[in-house]
Design a protein that fits this description.
The complex is a heterodimer of chains A (194) and B (285). Chain A is mainly alpha-helical. Chain A has helices spanning 11-19, 24-45, 48-65, 74-96, 102-114, 120-123, 126-138, 142-153, 158-165, 169-189. Chain A has 2 domains: 11-96, Rna Polymerase Sigma Factor, Chain: A (Orthogonal Bundle), CATH 1.10.1740; 102-189, Orthogonal Bundle (Arc Repressor Mutant, subunit A). Chain B is α+β, with helices and mostly antiparallel strands and 285 residues long. In chain B, 23% of the residues are buried. Classes of the chains: A mainly alpha (194), B alpha+beta (285). The interface between A and B is large, with 59 and 55 residues.
Chain lengths: 194, 285
């Protein structure tokens, strides 16, 4: 009596629908992951209408990507697309006015902590920086990595992360500080000018 | 620089993102420890109280009997509680994970104390102390942005005070920037900031340090205002929505700016208020 929506399909079944070019692949995706996609977009855009627009664009991109793709983890695959689509719209919107979103705050936090020098443009490219961050994340514990990805990839608030992990916001805040300092040191040790 | 960080973070390896969701699942499946244990002791006592209370007020008994009759088809198994993606639902309400776990394992006559908060985040147009919430937010972000630039210019100011010499002949100390870097920096900081701290070729570092402290203080004040505005929003939400729950013949009050309700699982399962999507239910703290 209490379920409001039909039970979600298994990921493999949804992927199969995309492969068969069945249009209900999108509604099934929305049924299962709509909330997650909306939340990713909202954290970045801080606007309900824009986030819904991103939800639709994300489904369209997923539709275009599968096939040929056959993702091993559908949620991670969709989440990456949702983030990219939302950031594209964020760039467009923020050209006109600043968007006070959790995404902006999180990126500024990270940027402020790293304080990369101007000449970083000359001796470091995105791929190298990304590679270093990926390698650094693998040195962290599972919980630390969860906090980092939650905060800086999905732009979740510290309060939300703390609720999910059932610890206090102050615990998450302290862990974040430690992780950021660690990243800064890691980059310095690997020759990045900071 | 932001752009570089945004792109670099966007390039995190797929397996790291996959692991994130796996870890999230693990957190969602973990049972909260202390709270549940405490509730295991409290629930029977509260249940007794409610039964006695119900005995005194016949109206509530009638509604409980009706609910029990309706509930015969709906059993008390975990199927009553649905998980949609990562959002937990019960009788159309969004519920916290902790409450979800509690309901899942509860019997019909087990009692809960539940706090109700707005499901949506605070309205941008909410007025607190004469200003819209959005204005506080904007001012906060602008101040954070200013603080960031003030800290950066603390390093660059000693060079930028030389003006175009910095890329033509270079400073007396032998520092020379590429022309594009100089112009990017001038554009980035803007005339207001540069004119405030570089006067007649002198970099006013001491003034800047004082201003950084002021900006930091302003950020702290704004953060306080934002927190207070959220509390005020919760209080207004609670006041406005209290009658909705009072109409349901359940024990309801306002505690710490939240609507608090005491009811059995059976009563919760039959709450039939409108616009359930407005509310988030959690175990009362």
């Amino acid at each position: 009596m209490l379920k409001e929506k039909s039970s979600p399909l298994e990921d493999e079944e949804i992927i199969e629908l995309y492969w068969q070019r069945k249009e209900n692949a999108i509604s099934e995706t929305d049924n299962k992951y709509g909330e997650v996609v909306f939340r990713i977009a909202y954290n970045i855009l801080n606007d309900k209408g824009d986030s819904e627009e991103c939800q639709n664009d994300t489904y369209l991109d997923v539709w275009n990507a599968i096939p040929p793709a056959r993702p091993r983890a559908l949620l991670a695959f969709i989440a990456k697309i949702a983030r990219r689509v939302s950031i594209d719209l964020y760039r467009k919107r923020s050209n006109k006015k600043a968007i006070p979103s959790e995404f902006k705050i999180a990126i500024e936090e990270l940027e402020y902590c790293l304080q990369l020098e101007g000449n970083v443009y000359e001796n470091l490219d995105v791929k190298s920086l990304s590679k270093l961050i990926n390698t650094y994340l693998r040195t962290l514990t599972e919980r630390q990595r969860y906090i980092f990805v939650g905060r800086f990839y999905f732009s979740n608030s510290i309060e939300k992360i703390s609720r999910e992990m059932r610890v206090t916001p102050s615990n998450v805040y302290k862990s974040l500080e430690k992780i950021k300092k660690g990243l800064r040191l890691y980059l310095i040790r690997n020759g990045v000018s900071i | 620089m932001s752009e570089m960080i945004i792109k670099a973070i966007g390039e995190l390896d797929d397996d790291i993102i996959e692991d994130y969701f796996k870890t999230k699942e693990t957190f969602l499946k973990e049972k909260p420890k202390n709270r549940i244990l405490i509730w295991k002791h409290i629930i029977p006592a509260v249940a007794c109280f409610v039964l006695i209370f119900s005995g005194i007020f016949g109206v509530t008994i009638a509604s409980i009997i009706n609910n029990q009759e309706e509930a015969t088809d709906s059993d008390t198994s975990s199927e009553d509680v649905s998980v949609e993606g990562i959002k937990y639902k019960y009788n159309g309400f969004s519920v916290s994970y902790e409450l979800y776990e509690l309901i899942k394992n509860a019997k019909d006559d087990d009692c809960f104390e539940i706090e109700i908060s707005p499901y949506a985040s605070i309205s941008k147009d909410f007025i607190y102390e004469g200003k819209r919430y959005e204005e506080y937010n904007q001012e906060y972000l602008q101040s954070k942005n200013l603080l960031k630039k003030q800290n950066e210019i603390l390093k660059d100011g000693e060079l930028l005070k030389y003006g175009e010499i910095l890329y033509t002949s270079g400073t007396p100390e032998g520092v020379k920037w590429p022309k594009h870097r100089y112009h990017e920096a001038v554009e980035y900081y803007g005339d207001d900031l540069l004119n405030a701290y570089i006067v007649d070729g002198e970099f006013l570092a001491e003034k800047l340090r004082n201003d950084i402290l002021d900006t930091q203080e302003k950020i702290n004040v704004l953060q306080g205002k934002i927190d207070k505005a959220r509390e005020a929003y919760d209080a207004v939400f609670a006041e406005q929505n209290l009658p909705v729950f009072q109409a349901e013949s359940i024990d309801v009050s306002i505690k710490d700016n939240r609507i608090n309700i005491h009811l059995t699982k059976l009563q919760l399962s039959s709450l039939s208020i409108e616009h359930k999507e407005l509310y988030l239910l959690d175990i009362a703290s």
